[in-house]
Design goal:
Structural class: mainly beta
Radius of gyration: 13 Å
Order of helices and strands: EEEEEEEEEEE
Largest sheet: 7 strands, mixed
Shape: globular
Number of helices: 0
Helix content: under 10%
Low-confidence stretches: none
Strand content: over 45%
Number of strands: 11
Oligomer: single chain
């Protein structure tokens, strides 16, 4: 059974940093692309960052230069380092796994339940 579990969310002041972790089990981690998405109240789920099986990364324009996605295949874990955070980053952040390449669309095979990130002004 595949499990995807996020952790590391919380409350941070504007300008601060937070690191999210996502541990995946029950799948051949090396063969999967990983993505982070977020969803704010009343808004659609949006792509934040993705990392391919070969560690190629790409980002939404809104987070480029501030967020960094990385993966550790020895720990079956993907990370999202968030710096210079803004109130508009407030959302529930979801981790997802997808066979093959990454996608900016929410067309992923497995999803976590999400972790709340709140940025105060």
């Amino acid at each position: 059974q595949v499990q995807v579990v996020e952790s590391g969310g919380g409350l941070v002041q504007a300008g601060g940093s937070l690191r999210l972790s996502c541990a995946a089990s029950g799948l051949t981690f090396n063969n999967y692309a990983l993505g982070w998405f977020r969803q704010a109240p009343g808004k659609e789920r949006e792509f934040v960052a993705g990392v391919s099986w070969s560690a190629f990364t790409h980002y939404a324009d809104s987070v480029k230069g501030r967020f960094t996605i990385s993966r550790d295949n020895t720990k079956n874990t993907v990370y999202l380092q968030m710096n210079s955070m803004k109130p508009e980053d407030t959302a529930v952040y979801f981790c997802a796994a997808r066979w093959g390449t990454t996608s900016t669309r929410p067309e992923y095979d497995y999803w976590g339940h999400g972790t709340q990130v709140t940025v105060s002004s």
